[in-house]
């Protein structure tokens, strides 16, 4: 699997692969809202917003606390 260097990440539409159950990996649409180029303290490099309704529906069903996490996550 290819991954981008932090300096190659751009804001905008992107996809992430997530494994929620039984080793099944699925691709979900996200929006990269901000890239933190110089953050080396906690190694979180971007703020993402999950825009794929399939993933949002799955996380809402599992735990209401995950709803916020799935919607706004800093990675």
Number of strands: 4
In which range does the helix fraction lie? Answer: 10-25%
Alpha-carbon Rg, integer: 13 Å
Find the structural class using helix and strand composition: alpha+beta
What percent of residues are in strands?
35-45%
Unreliable stretches, pLDDT < 50, 5 or more residues? none
Description:
The structure is a single chain. The longest helix has 10 residues, at 53-62. The protein is α+β, with helices and mostly antiparallel strands and 75 residues long. The chain has a 4-stranded antiparallel β-sheet. The protein has 2 helices and 4 strands. The chain has helices spanning 53-62, 64-71, and strands spanning 12-21, 24-35, 46-50, 72-74. Helix content is 24%, strand content 40%. α1 packs antiparallel against α2 (64-71). The chain has one domain.
């Amino acid at each position: 699997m290819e991954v981008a260097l932090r300096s190659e990440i751009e804001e905008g539409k992107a996809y992430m692969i997530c494994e929620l159950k039984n080793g099944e990996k699925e691709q979900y649409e996200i929006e990269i809202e901000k890239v933190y180029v110089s953050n080396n303290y906690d190694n979180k490099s971007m703020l993402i917003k999950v825009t794929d309704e399939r993933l949002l529906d799955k996380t809402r069903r599992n735990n209401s606390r995950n709803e916020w996490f799935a919607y706004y996550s800093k990675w």
